[in-house]
Amino acid sequence: MNRERSDKRHRKIAGLLKYFRLIMAIFYFVMGVSILFLPLFANISLSTRYALGLMLLGYGIFRFYRQIKSNDEEAN
Question: Is the pTM of this model over 0.90?
């Protein structure tokens, strides 16, 4: 009985973490695009904006790719 509850709780937490990772990937992507294109960050030098924006954009894409890859592996 206790083992069943533990497994159920583990699956529930794993499901929540999946959505959290996806939200964080989208967050990094949006922050990268925001830093690159929004005038809100105009007071930062252009080279710094490009470097930081591209790093965040790339990291968001990387995290999204890893999440998709992880979902594919779980399905198999």
Answer: no
